[in-house]
Design a protein that fits this description.
47% helix; alpha/beta; globular; 309 residues
Length: 309
């Protein structure tokens, strides 16, 4: 049996195209022409010795072999990127303090910490999960080096706009929505004030002329999930990190008013971050990209990802 050595550059185009849902978008992100990416995909099928794609309507879908290839391609690229980071940053040592808003702490933090620790084992990370206003304050006072938080209106001196994330009405996964929506005053479950998303929910309902009542309040996101799952009220969050006990509702179908997008910012303590903080910021942006749709990312985030790729 002939020995196959897959081209990592080809695999990167393959994985990027599948994650973005378009090889045209992949060519733009990777800085290649669409014809070059098409040639790479053809090369991948030749290397694999079996069809990777099949026609599906006007587009392409993966064959069984393609699904298998995608899983291995992701693992190969992750190992390659970790090796590259470890070699280039083998002398990185020190301490970095990272802050995350609670949604991203649950959905993004484990992967970010794992990737960073494997690439830079000599660096100690201190992570803090907190509300956006607290994270911004801690960056300003110098007790955090880096923080990913919703934009709360304050202008911090060293911040970058990462994404505009759509907010969603969240209800119980069990069929309780109709009884909640039929109440004269819509019951809400929210984090204790001050809370940006709590304010967005009530302001949106007020503008729509929809009466509401605060049915449940909690200091933690886990408390909100429990209340919503139990049918005590609806809340608003993003699609990120939703537990199986709750679901995102479609405004048009549910009769709820459409919610705004929330700006997600990356705050730095210093204008010129040290190498340790800079490396962690790169991996954090990659983690956000994996969790969010491509069309929500800012030009800053997309350009940073091109540089990382």
């Amino acid at each position: 049996m002939r020995q196959i050595t897959f081209d990592l550059d080809v695999l990167r185009s393959f994985v990027t195209g599948m994650e973005l849902g378009s090889f045209a978008k992949a060519s733009d992100r990777l800085g290649r022409s669409t014809s070059a990416v098409s040639a790479q995909l053809k090369k991948l099928e030749e290397q694999a010795g079996t069809p990777i794609f099949r026609k599906s309507g006007r587009g392409l879908a993966l064959t069984d072999a393609g699904e298998t290839m995608l899983g291995y391609a992701r693992r190969l690229l992750e190992l390659n990127d970790e090796a590259a980071s470890a070699i280039s940053g083998v002398e990185l040592e020190g301490w970095v303090r990272l802050g995350l808003q609670e949604d991203f702490g649950e959905a993004v933090l484990p992967d970010v910490l794992g990737r960073f620790a494997r690439a830079h084992p000599k660096v100690k990370i201190e992570a803090r999960i907190a509300r956006s206003h607290e994270l911004a304050e801690r960056v300003t006072t110098g007790s955090l080096d880096l923080a990913l938080a919703w934009h709360n209106g304050d202008r911090l001196p060293h911040s970058e706009h990462v994404a505009d994330v759509p907010m969603r009405w969240i209800g119980p996964a069990r069929p309780m929505q109709e009884s909640l929506l039929s109440e004269r005053e819509l019951p809400l479950a929210a984090l204790e004030a001050p809370c940006l998303l709590r304010t967005k929910a009530t302001e949106t309902l007020d503008r729509a002329g929809r009466p509401w009542r605060m049915a449940f309040s909690s200091p933690s996101l886990s408390g909100i999930w429990a209340a919503v799952a139990a049918g005590l009220g609806l809340t608003i969050r993003t699609d990120i990190g939703l537990p199986a006990s709750v679901v995102a509702l479609t405004p048009g179908v549910s009769g709820l008013p459409a919610l705004p997008h929330m700006a997600l910012n990356l705050h730095h303590k210093d204008a010129d971050p040290d190498p340790v903080t800079g490396k962690l910021a790169e991996i954090l942006i990659q983690g956000v990209m994996d969790a969010l749709p491509e069309n929500t990312l800012s030009s800053f985030a997309r350009n940073k990802l091109k540089n990382v790729a």
